[in-house]
Structure formats: structure tokens, C-alpha cells
Amino acid sequence: MVYDGKKQEFEVFDTKLEISKERDVYNYYSGYFNDLAKKLTEEYEKKYVEVNTCIEDVHNNGYDQGFEFISQAILKAIDILIEYKIYDISYEVFLEEYYSKYYNWNDIFDSIDNKYLSIIKSTEELDEYRTSRRENRGKWIGGGFGLGGAVQAGALNILSGTAHGVFNLGAKLMSAVIDSSDKRKIFRDPNMLDTLKKAVLINIICIKFALYDALYSRGIIA
User: Fold this and answer.
1) Residue ranges of domains in the chain
2) 109 closest CA partner among 202, 192, 43
3) From the centroid of its chain, how far is CA 21?
4) Could you give the 3-state DSSP secondary structure of residue 13?
5) For 109-155, how does the pLDDT look when each residue is reduced to its tens digit (9 = 90+)?
């Protein structure tokens, strides 16, 4: 799909407008990657809906799902470079030297994923605190009145441990219910998928800028 471009001239209201060869090349590949971005974003949305049933699915696989489609577009850019007989810009070199300054899929995905992580992190911290508090809470020691007091104290300790265990279990269950509700809210929020779709779209569109930079660096365009 090599397009060398051509200089074009137009007259608008007796004014001559000129489109340079470089601008013509940019316009050509701009249109190509804009169309490709729309197509791949639609495919991404379809896959997202098919394979993700909860926020945990998005957390575990969401980044790779989006990058899969971005990567397809990057490979198209590499194919174009090869057609221009540019063989020393590999996939990795293209990412590092030309595309990295435009790429922000990781940042956008992380902004979504952090909402989920904040729920998980707070839950773990609370559970650790409750466990530590239960283990280090003061006990009734001895009862103060010989063997009978010791037996009574032992019974109180058992009852106390049981009561606190039940309390902590109930607190954990309540936290789990709240956390589950919060997770569902994140997953069902239509803005989440909309944000991810836009990020995939924009990151694919921006590949045209990286391609243009690569062509410029090799003197294909001035």
C-alpha cells in the first residue's frame, strides 16, 4: 500500500491553494488509519461484550484485549514501512522510537482498573486489621479467684473468642456484599466501556503520526 503522494493545486474564489506531496501522503494514511480505527474498535467492543462478564474479567484480561486490536493496526504500519523497503524498523523499534510518545492505552486502562483495585485493596487492609485486632485483643486472665475463677475465665475466653469471631465474620460478609455491589456498579457503568472504546480508537488513529514520523526519519517524505 505504498502511496508516494502528489502535489495538488486548487482554485477557490480566485485563490490558488496548494497541497504539498507530504500533506497528500499524510492525508492518505490519515484516512486509512481513521477507517481502520473505526473497524477495529467495533471488533474490540464486540469481543469485550462477549468475553467479559464481570469487572474481574476486565481486570485480568482487559489490557491485553485492547492492545490486541491496537497491535493489529501497528502491524499494518510495519507492513507499509516494508513496502517502502524500510526493513530496519521492527515492531519493537516502531513502538519504542516512534509510537511510544502517542501511546496512552496503558494509562487509560489503569484509570479504570484502579477503581477496581481500590475496592480490593481496602478490603484486604480491613481484613488484616480485623484479624490483627482479634488476635491482639486483651483476654480475661485468671478471673482472680483460684481454680474456679480460672475455669470461669476459660469459659469467658471461649465465649469472647466465639462472639468476636461471629462479629468479624458478619463484618467480613457485610464488606463482601458492599464490595460486590461496588464492583457491579463499575462494570455496569456504560461510561467504562465508552472510555475504553475511545482509548482504543484514539490509540489506533495515532499510529498514523508514528508512521509519518518513521517515513520522515528515512527521507521518504521531507
Assistant:
1) 8-217
2) 192
3) 38
4) coil
5) 999 988 888 887 665 553 554 455 456 634 333 434 344 444 444 54
